[in-house]
């Protein structure tokens, strides 16, 4: 009988880094990735046949090249399964996977697991966010990387965070600069926090490069600016916005929104490092600190696991201090871009899957349980299972929505036929 | 009903039975305190299919009661209480083997004897009604007067209409007796004083009443799919496999048995159930059981291969040792009424049984004879044992 | 050009390795919903399979997230919900 592998869910920087570290230590690894290639959203490669590469800092390219070389060097220890979607852990401890290529769900009982499923983008909803033509900035960036081409027609970017100017600069370099970038926060009014950001070792060079690209393409970057609504307008959108005290309207083809990222944790098994099958989280899925930190965090999770399995581990302290630096940068950024929450209009959709509005949410009892929010309100009962509306509801109610207990599987909708064809590695 | 105006009833359990009792008590002028260890519809009520079905009931008192209970739904729909929540729809009892066909035919005869409309459907007719039905289906009976309602929606409506405040996260520790009569419910250190107590707490009734030997938890695992139609049921009836009937009639009783039902929800989704796992009161679901349920479902209705499972979940039915619900006054402790043990029939029976329990608490006779469900029967068994 | 799949019966070209979502957007198809539904129609949104906004019906199979799924020659796709067969 062969040794049960260490399972790693997610082939982004954290998962790949953990896989390389474990395989180098001589442990067999099963690495599953939902896409057809490793790299995660940050290192999405162009589809075959697509041309130019998207502009991004050279260190990302170098880091990923180094990591893929390490994976290649210990390829014999790593089984990589792409187009395979993690479905969660069932009530009897099986880790479940949807092999999309084979059209079959398989179950496995790994020796330990590192879950590195990245982050999801936060959005602050407004009437019309559910329309075609509105996309997350991160989603648009992934598409840009895959196709090498920007979307056609006027683009507006709105929300908050460093991704907004970064994506704007990439779109400009790719040939279609956005008409404007609307930042909810007012970074220029917080020079002290900007200075702290620089002192904390923030990527100021990167920021300066993006700023220069935006200036060159004459893309206005407005602070204290928010989208208030979007309405369908022919093949495009009419977008209402408030910039300071001014109300304005703009016609665009694409509205790209983003208000930061948070760990993708809905339904993910809770870390239990002391359990018979230890589960650890790594990367943005543990703490949203970005791609550089995810590389370190994947390594850290692998070293923690090795220590737990008695294989010894050093250098954890060094990793911790570098992660702490990333944490300080993120905190300073958040401080610089901080803005007051705004209550959405009553008709604003909150749960897109089931078509439920903010008014529907308010109609529920103030002390309604998570179950009542789901069953009576139909929030989070649809296909996304609360992955998008859960954080919004938590933000609007001012407290987290407790997770279902026991944790629910499947984490993602799965074909009835594929699940009926379940195969397990158990001898039965 | 001036005589009852002063009575204060504590109802333990905000499932469909407790909510119905609370609603009808309040409507009769009683003061009601509704308590739940968690929240409304948190137990089996919120984790079940929506079958308001006579078709599946065991012959005898259950079949007769289910006919009353379904008629009660029809009346409540007509007078507005359940408007928009209860829908008439057929149940199809389907057989896939000669043995199953015989069982279905026997059950159909029992239904007809109880006064139920039963229509024999040949395979061609059934295919026209439900396109895509599996090749193995050889015989079917249609029960055209059955219906559909979701337990948590009915519960919400009952509570909303009567404006009863519910105390969430209030687990009853014990029923406090004074001078041989129920005086209230202890919640932690607090006493909720009451003139009478209704225990409608599903499996939670067992520790409160010392029914651990009589009430059995029976877990059921289910799956819900995505929408097959943008709104309205995707197929023209509720599909009930003979395996479900067999389980209900007590023919197959082994643990882990699957009694297959395919319930087309009003949203266009399918609810597919379910396992029958005795002495399991946890809410975990496992891939082997769900996969087995789905294989059965695909055999019965192959177009499900075009659907995705959105979630799996488990509900815990509360079954009594003899398979009949327990509804009636506590045989030894005055001022306590019990309404539990509805197994998988709580959605169908719940509103009617809640209304009956309300009448018992008000000192009135229920609308039908409930002797067969009386808690007294277990006393007698124990006395003879 | 590498191949074609069909969106509501209309051929859509795709490049090798491209996702269904990328090909649909390149063809100018942003609205993935039925016009008469009471729920919001489909559209590509998060790009990582989480939001389920871009799920499309597949003839003779279960729906898939268009942002995760590589395009394939001859696939017949359409808006949700569909019964999985015979949608035009």
Automatic annotation (TrEMBL), chain A:
Oxidoreductase found in the keyword field: yes
Domain FAD/NAD(P)-binding: residue ranges: 6-267
Gene3D superfamilies for the chain: BFD-like [2Fe-2S]-binding domain, FAD/NAD(P)-binding domain
Keyword terms: Oxidoreductase
InterPro entries: BFD-like_2Fe2S-bd_dom_sf, FAD/NAD-bd_sf, FAD/NAD-binding_dom, Metab_Enz_Cyan_OpOx_G3PDH
UniProt KW Oxidoreductase keyword: yes
Protein's recorded name: FAD-dependent oxidoreductase
Species in which this protein is naturally found: Bosea minatitlanensis
Automatic annotation (TrEMBL), chain B:
Residue stretches making up the FAD dependent oxidoreductase domain: 8-360
GO-annotated molecular function: oxidoreductase activity
Keywords assigned: Oxidoreductase
E.C. no: 1.-.-.-
Pfam family, one: DAO
Protein name: NAD(P)/FAD-dependent oxidoreductase
Automatic annotation (TrEMBL), chain C:
Keyword Oxidoreductase: yes
Lineage top rank: taxon: Bacteria
Entry-linked InterPro entries: 2Fe-2S-bd_N (IPR042204), 2Fe-2S_ferredoxin-like_sf (IPR036010)
Keywords associated with the record: Oxidoreductase
Name used for this protein in its record: 2Fe-2S iron-sulfur cluster-binding protein
Organism of this sequence: Bosea minatitlanensis
